[in-house]
Design brief:
Blueprint (H helix, E strand, L loop, with lengths): L17 E7 L5 H12 L4 E3 L8 E8 L6 H5 L3 E9 L1 E3 L8 E4 L7 H9 L3 E5 L8 E2 L2 E2 H6 L9 E14 L2 E8 L5 H11 L4 E11 L8 E2 H10 L1 H6 L13 E4 L1 H8 L4 E2 L4 E9 L4 E9 L2 E7 L5
Parallel strand pairs: 1-13, 3-12, 14-16
Antiparallel strand pairs: 1-3, 2-3, 4-11, 4-12, 5-6, 7-10, 8-9, 10-11, 15-18, 16-17, 17-18
Helix pairs in contact: 1-6
Length: about 300
């Protein structure tokens, strides 16, 4: 009679709080990456901000516990990408995972001409979302329709391109860095750039370098995260960034200790700053209380309350 296998060790998930900036590898969906790291941290609650296509790599902010409350605000953040385009070849998905749908002659443009062409896209532009996207039409995802060979009309949407820097122009390869607003589809931008150059193209590589004020140096690789979780889980959890790091560019206000308790209980309280708009709110000792809204006078109303860690 064969011996029974050893019992599988099970761990109860914990109330892990904080942010991890994952350098998402290619070949994984954003949700697959999130679930992987959630298991490594043994966290109860998790969410991510700003999906990346499976083929894309780069910064994917993962939020755990109380930090999931900042997900919606990170979705609004500007982003920076390093883009590699394959000129002369279009695909149905707009990236290297798709089937080739057309070819065209490569443009004979010098470096300066490419710089001028890219510069013409800087500013507020209208962009038609790609069929292979998660947007909905009559309750159905566009990519679901696209996989069935259907094409539907999509309304052009305004997006902002703040900067484009040409890094390489050596046909059929075009490489540039772009800083843009939320909801910008890089695959559509590449196709529009190619059209302006008199050809077609698809995005062969896409790497997100920054989200909001988070920079590439703050990212961690999945393999390193796996090793860290195996070596010392508590140390890995301690390395998570605090939730308010996602709001570092916001103004802040501080409230007295007694008012801190009332703010956390949902009440409007006095603060040291006047003005309008959303602010980070801290107790006098520096503890992050949550997101508040100033309404002219030196009073702040709670919008999202954060529970203390531990």
């Amino acid at each position: 009679m064969s011996a029974k296998p050893p019992p599988v060790e099970r761990h109860e998930p914990a109330a892990v709080n904080g942010l991890l900036l994952l350098n998402k590898p290619a070949g994984m969906t954003s949700n697959q990456a999130l679930q992987k790291v959630k298991r490594l941290l043994r966290a109860k609650k998790a969410g991510h901000t700003g999906s990346l296509d499976p083929a894309a790599t780069g910064m994917l902010p993962l939020c755990f516990g109380e930090a999931t409350k900042v997900c919606a605000y990170l979705l609004q953040a500007d982003k920076t990408y390093r883009v590699t385009a394959r000129l002369g070849e279009a695909t149905d998905t707009g990236d290297a995972d798709g089937q080739v749908t057309g070819t065209a002659t490569l443009p004979e443009l010098e470096h300066d001409a490419w710089e001028r062409l890219l510069a013409s896209f800087v500013g507020d532009i209208l962009q038609v979302p790609p069929m292979y996207s998660a947007l909905k039409k009559d309750g159905r995802r566009l990519y679901e329709l696209a996989r069935k060979g259907e094409t539907v009309e999509r309304e052009a949407r305004p997006v902002s391109i703040y900067e484009i820097e040409l890094l390489e122009a050596r046909a059929p390869r075009l490489v540039f860095q772009v800083r843009c607003s939320k909801d910008t589809y890089i695959r559509s931008l590449v196709e529009d750039i190619a059209k302006a150059a008199g050809t077609v193209a698809h995005t062969s590589k896409l790497h997100r370098e920054s989200v909001g004020d988070f920079q590439a140096a703050d990212m961690v690789d999945l393999k390193d995260t796996e090793k860290a979780a195996e070596a010392d889980l508590d140390a890995l959890r301690a390395r998570l960034m605090p939730a308010d790091a996602a709001l570092a560019a916001w103004p802040e206000c501080r409230v007295g200790d007694g008012d801190a308790q009332r703010f956390s209980g949902g009440q409007t309280v006095p603060c040291e700053q006047a003005g309008h708009g959303l602010v980070r709110v801290y107790a006098a000792g520096g503890r992050f209380l949550g997101i508040g809204e100033l309404k002219g006078a030196t009073m702040v109303s709670p919008r999202r309350i954060f529970l203390p860690s531990g």
